[in-house]
UniProtKB/TrEMBL annotation:
One of its GO terms (cellular component) is cytosol. Pfam families: Glyco_hydro_1. Its EC number is 3.2.1.21. It comes from the Bacteria. SUPFAM superfamilies: (Trans)glycosidases. It catalyses: Hydrolysis of terminal, non-reducing beta-D-glucosyl residues with release of beta-D-glucose. Keywords: Carbohydrate metabolism, Cellulose degradation, Glycosidase, Hydrolase, Polysaccharide degradation. This is Beta-glucosidase. PANTHER family: GLYCOSYL HYDROLASE (PTHR10353), LP05116P (PTHR10353:SF36). It comes from Streptomyces diacarni. GO terms for biological process: cellulose catabolic process. NCBIfam families: BGL. The active site is at E166 (proton donor), E362 (nucleophile). Belongs to the glycosyl hydrolase 1 family.
Length: 453
């Protein structure tokens, strides 16, 4: 059954991030990032690997642009590596670093593919992290300076910009639980990292606008939070989880305020002034959706000690449960296509007119099959049908980006989890389009019958 027709001009794309695909970590003046250091700490990466080479995109990017052209993607979301452009995070721009993205943007434009850069996808320059990273207010200003340097070079050809990717994951996994870089386990003392990232977004958005940019978004992770039962304890725990993972990173941007005064009071600096800069700073809203979360009151007998590959400490005031009766990806994630529609409906119900047009900036799944990836085809087919249904019920969604174009370095999982439409042989760098790549290529062709370009 072919996919239903999406609106004219709907943006079809795929997403990647610099640290996960580029490699070339020491090439042409790139400085180290917090993730380079993190991968060298024993036991941090499940398969003991690092991203020194990854998919070697830094040297093979022309091949990847050719794959994007063959796929028929109208857009490509990639991230710019801050330490490649500013090796110490501040000061002198590393021209060869910017030259790389300049050439990539040119090739994409030449291929008729819209470049959609993310300025920060987790690879904080190490010298800044050693000075406290996002726990430090100064990092927000450094980020804006970096954004300005990139826009100065690329804003003549790049229209749509993403400042931050998933500040929630950086805060909760990097500073709260320590499963991701920088590996700090501060629990609720990680909250300043949330505020400083959002402030960094506000300052960067202002710098981008000063460079003439008029289309700015943030890619936030979102997913429904389902309480295990209607008991007060379980609904309370689910509400707290929803507050920390969904609302904390949406409401400052969309409503110009934090969802909870007590929480806001824990944040350092002139928060009210900062919110003036953070609120109303978006032209569109990016949603990364993977799966819902089933949450209840802490109960060591029934709660999972791991969720999405992340260890859940027993001392947290909520427990995560496995969603029963669902297909699971190779990564053990529940396949819940209707969760995408529910996420879009919840955003609309909560934020109404304050919610600008949405782009689904990431949606995808990990499966081990090198080429015959029927699970991935079924995953995207089902999610796109739910997305279409969401459009029919009034969601203003303007595009959809598959995570990911290539198999790549899946953070603390290393190379064990493959999310790509294209298989990568990490020993040789060889790329092999999977069945899902061909399925999506044909589906995109069908969306653009002749004469409807
Ligand atoms: O959403 C994220 O966590 C990141 O943006 C990606 O970098 C991940 O690799 C992907 O989502 C799969 O987990």
């Amino acid at each position: 059954q072919p996919l239903p027709a999406f609106p004219d001009g709907f943006l079809w794309g795929t997403s990647t991030s610099a640290f996960q695909i580029e490699g070339g970590v020491g090439a042409d003046g790139r400085g180290p990032s917090v993730w380079d250091a993190f991968t060298r700490q024993p036991g941090r990466i499940k398969d003991g690997s690092d991203a020194a080479v990854a998919t070697d995109h830094y040297h093979r990017w022309r091949e990847d642009v050719a794959l994007l052209r063959e796929l028929g993607a109208g857009a490509y979301r990639f991230s710019v590596s801050w330490p490649r452009v500013l090796p110490t995070g501040t000061g002198e721009v590393n021209a060869p670093g910017l030259d790389f993205y300049d050439a990539l943007v040119d090739a994409l434009c030449e291929a008729g593919i819209e470049p959609v850069p993310t300025l920060f996808h987790w690879d904080t320059p190490l010298p800044l992290e050693e000075r406290g990273g996002w726990l430090e207010r100064d990092t927000a200003q450094r980020f804006a300076d970096y954004a300005d340097a990139v826009a100065a070079r690329l804003a003549d050809r790049v229209t749509r910009w993403i400042t931050l990717n998933e500040p929630a994951e950086v805060t909760l996994l990097g500073y709260g639980l320590g499963d991701h870089a920088p590996g700090k386990r501060l629990l609720f003392d990680a909250l300043p990292a949330a505020h400083h990232q959002l402030l960094g977004h506000g300052l960067a958005a202002r710098a981008l606008r000063a460079r003439g940019v008029r289309s700015i978004g943030v890619a936030n992770s979102h997913g429904p939070v389902w309480p295990v039962s209607s008991s007060e304890e379980d609904t309370g725990a689910a509400a707290l989880y929803d507050l920390l993972t969904n609302r904390l990173f949406a409401e400052p941007l969309l409503l110009g305020r934090y969802p909870d005064e007590g929480l806001a009071a824990m944040l350092p600096g002139p928060v009210a002034d900062d919110l003036g800069l953070i609120g109303d700073s978006l032209d569109w809203y990016g949603v990364n959706y993977y799966q819902p979360t089933l949450v209840g009151a802490p109960d060591p007998r029934t709660q999972a000690d791991e969720f999405a590959g992340i260890g859940i400490p027993a001392e947290l005031p909520f427990g995560i449960r496995e969603i029963p009766g669902r297909e699971r990806t190779g990564f053990g994630w529940a396949v819940v296509p209707e969760g995408l529609r529910e996420t879009l409906r919840t955003l609309r119900e909560r934020y109404g007119e304050r919610l600008p047009p949405v782009l689904v900036t990431e949606n995808g799944c990990a499966y081990p099959e090198p080429v015959a990836d029927a699970g991935r085809i079924a995953f995207h087919d089902a999610h796109l049908r739910e997305l279409h249904a969401a459009l029919e019920e009034g969601a203003d969604v303007r595009g959809y980006f598959v995570w990911s174009l290539l198999d790549n370095f899946e953070w603390a999982e290393g190379y064990e989890q493959r999310f790509g439409l294209v298989h990568v042989d990490y020993a040789t760098g060889e790329r092999t389009p999977k069945d899902s790549f061909r399925w999506l290529r044909d589906a995109l062709r069908a969306q653009r019958p002749p004469g409807r370009e």
